């Protein structure tokens, strides 16, 4: 879903099982996003970032008591050239706004971006994206206005938090000199809560028991969601949004609050 | 940048009503679609709620209910719902519940209504009125009805038989005898199947390679023949003139061959034969000779027509001879289906054939047992009397005897005659009636006055039980003897039945004993209680209840017609049905009948025993959809009948 494998890391699993992963975003102690956003709205230099934090506060996406059903959600998916935000770059972003009842395709967005790194290998493997499309794509800096327009005031939803948040943080540091922080709902982590309450014991592993897969497609099939072709940012965003609707329908009550699901 | 919604686009383009839309419309729809997930057992639409979208099922299963709570439909992937509300009041008419986890694509109502107005095919596919869709299906089939459409290739039953130009006349005659053909194609020495000569022409090498591949067996097709000889040539050009049997065939063959193409129609071949006075035409397919069409092939084809069968019935002189016609009857049935005849044509052709068997058997019987001691009338009952016979049918018959009938003196004669006819019919494929409604049963071999009393009792003192097996007698037709007796009984029924509300109510109640299923779901027949069956009896659950229902209305208005379609015309004219329901019922009967008939024709073609049980897996989506519509029309007609003839 989220990386365009280049030759050097073709063996990397496309979704690492270690959820701690590479995501180095400092989540605030006790997930106190309210305080963190208030601080950042003060201290951020870039006006777009300032607006982003303020819009988040206004929309209630930082208040742990807000009901999930009242929050504007945005499913977002990055296609990247690898897993390490320090070494790899973003080539494609897909996003779709939604709530627990409806997913709004009409407002879906799709951007291609030319990463500043990792384009040296012979193979940007290309899930529908050609090398020349990427060569002709703008730098992320040029689409930032649009991107902020879309993400502001929404709680972001991803499948595996180790990609979108850290990659965007690093990309912004490099381009505007300051990073970004925000809460996300990670459908992969919600799935892990259901299926990986405890790590497998040595005994279970000796018996050959395998961890339940919490990859996007496998997770979806547990809710009888259809199989979608992976590796298109918009389709993956749609797939993730549908998965969250299903997870909430199955495992959470109507009055679920952000505190129950975000990270 | 606008996002492309590949998954949604690829999905909707596969299903009606979207599959005939142009690409740009599909892309617009995929853009505009919204998506929602419904866990199993959750409500998707509630009665009377505002509806803004067409709901398309991406995956999962839903059930659609009537306002009354009755199950109306069950849909899965690719199914859609909500169109009725969108096109009318903007409110939900049929509530919907997910019965499995379901993902819905919502197509905005504004887009839906626009497409409905702009694209006829889209509107057709959506068509909220079941009956309209069915009517369209029936008329489009009738339009295809053309008896001149059979291609020549259909009549060819074997590969062409050929021999080298240098073979002797004797060799040719031997080959014609061993291969049982009346003509032989003559090919150049180089092309000959058994030739060892070196190929010298391009055509020759082609034929040779074909030969090599098939060793010494006849090749399935050969190159262009240079001539032909026939039985008639051997007689006229060889025997009559005393030519040596060692003469090479090329000296007596006909040259200047007249070819036809495999895809020309049979009637064109007939015209060519007439014009050129030829009885054998080599048939070409892409420069290869694939067979020879002979006049006898054409005659045999024609002989499958029901008229031919009828005339040959009257030429047979024993039960054994009549029984040999069973294959011809089946062939004419299959042929009428192949030529797209409608159910009324097929039903009446089969009834005419059945009636002819009876008439010929009675003729033979009277020869065998002597002339009848008192006048009598032999009756056909049920589907034969209605001109709605299929190929799977039992014999339902009876005898009405003159009132001067004296059982002591006369019954032995009629018993023997009835037995003879009944056995003969059984031998000809009309099996004995399991309900014993046959003239062999003394109860149904009675003088006219007894029959009059039967009908008077049935009509004046009815109970559902007494009428349970009697309804078949209300479709009655005289086929032999004193036909006035049948008319007297039909008039009696006509006069009395329409005056007796109790009788009509009992008949209506019995007509509700057999109901149609709800529809289909995956490869099952779905019943109203949600249960599944593997197949549906198209007679018991389809054509029979429609005929029953039409009979009740027909008795109520005093119609003298017996055919269901004819009765329906009278009923519609009498104005006792709500507007439009008469034509709906006609279409429903036609469609169910044709599904049944096609199913039986297919079985015959595959050498299986035909029956009435159709499995959903054998139906096309088109047939399922229309059958389901027909069932719904029948259901609603049954509801109306219950209300029209209330229990006294």
Automatic annotation (TrEMBL), chain A:
**Entry-linked NCBIfam families:** PRK09146.1 (NF006602)
User: What is this protein identified as?
Assistant: DNA polymerase III subunit epsilon
Gene Ontology molecular functions: 3'-5' exonuclease activity; nucleic acid binding
Exonuclease domain location is: 72-253
Which Pfam family, just one, is annotated for this protein?
Answer: RNase_T
Q: Which organism is it from?
A: Aliidiomarina iranensis
Q: Entry's InterPro entries?
A: Ribonucl_H, RNaseH-like_sf, RNaseH_sf
Keywords assigned: Exonuclease, Hydrolase, Nuclease
One cellular component term (GO) for this entry is: cytosol
- Which SMART domains did the record assign? EXOIII
One Gene Ontology biological process? DNA metabolic process
Annotated spans, Disordered: 1-31
CDD domains from the UniProt entry: DEDDh
Biased composition annotated in UniProt, kind: Polar residues: 1-20
Automatic annotation (TrEMBL), chain B:
Q: Where is the composition biased (Polar residues)?
A: 195-216
InterPro entries this protein is in? CBS_dom, CBS_dom_sf, cNMP-bd_dom, cNMP-bd_dom_sf, Diverse_CBS-Domain, DUF294_put_nucleoTrafse_sb-bd, GlnD_Uridyltrans_N, RmlC-like_jellyroll
Q: Which organism is it from?
A: Aliidiomarina iranensis
Domain named Cyclic nucleotide-binding: residues: 17-115
Write down the Gene3D superfamilies for this protein, in alphabetical order. CBS-domain, Jelly Rolls
Q: Name one Pfam family in it.
A: DUF294_C
Domain of life of the source: Bacteria
GO MF terms held by the record = [protein-PII] uridylyltransferase activity
Q: What name has this protein been given in UniProt? A: Cyclic nucleotide-binding protein
Q: What is the lineage of its organism?
A: Bacteria, Pseudomonadati, Pseudomonadota, Gammaproteobacteria, Alteromonadales
Occurrences of domain CBS (ranges): 253-309
Sorted keywords for this record are: CBS domain
